[in-house]
Amino acid sequence: MKVVVLAGGLSDERDVSLSSGSQIANALIANGHEVLLMDVFFGFPEAASFAEAYAQFGQKEYQAVISTQAPDLAALKAANPTLTNLVGPHVIEICQGADAVFLALHGGIGENGQIQALFDLYHIPYTGTGYKGSLLAMDKLLAKKLCALAGITSPKYWEYNAGEDMVNFAAQITYPVVVKPLDNGSSIGIQMVDDAHEMIPALVDASRYSAKVLVEEKIAGREFSVGLLDGKAVPIIEIIPLKGFYDYANKYQAGATKEVTPAELSPEKTSEMQQIAERAYQVLGLHGYSRVDFMMAEDGTIHFIEANTLPGMTPTSLLPQEVKVLGMSYPELCQKLLESAFQR
Question: Please, what are the domains in the chain?
Answer without folding.
Answer: 2-126 (3.40.50.20), 138-153+220-342 (3.30.470.20), 157-217 (3.30.1490.20)
